[in-house]
Amino acid sequence: MNEPKLTWGKRERDLPERWPRLPDGAPEEGAFLTHRLERNCEAELLEQLLRAYGIPVVTEHGNYGSLGKVVMGFSGEGVDFFVPASMLEDAQNLLTPVADTETDTQTSDQ
Prior knowledge:
Elements: H1 15-18, E1 30-36, H2 42-52, E2 58-60, H3 65-72, E3 79-84, H4 88-95, H5 101-109
Antiparallel strand pairs: 1-3, 2-3
């Protein structure tokens, strides 16, 4: 019987396997997606949302961000998100708000 892989509370270290590769085997170039602050776990939620949709993401915490993350638990400078260039449009679509159809229907009826 296969035992479940317990990952709760652990950061996945599978980025090299998930990042797309070019025909010659080199990793695909990354593209800047967005900059987010780390308040209210916004950056972590975005990272997990992208991961849930199969989009690998690399985060960068700026000049003193990594030190701030160690000392204070968050980066005061925010986080830059980079995704594979071929998946940039999909990632941008995930960040685009979706109109509430119920509200739109009520507005058009009035």
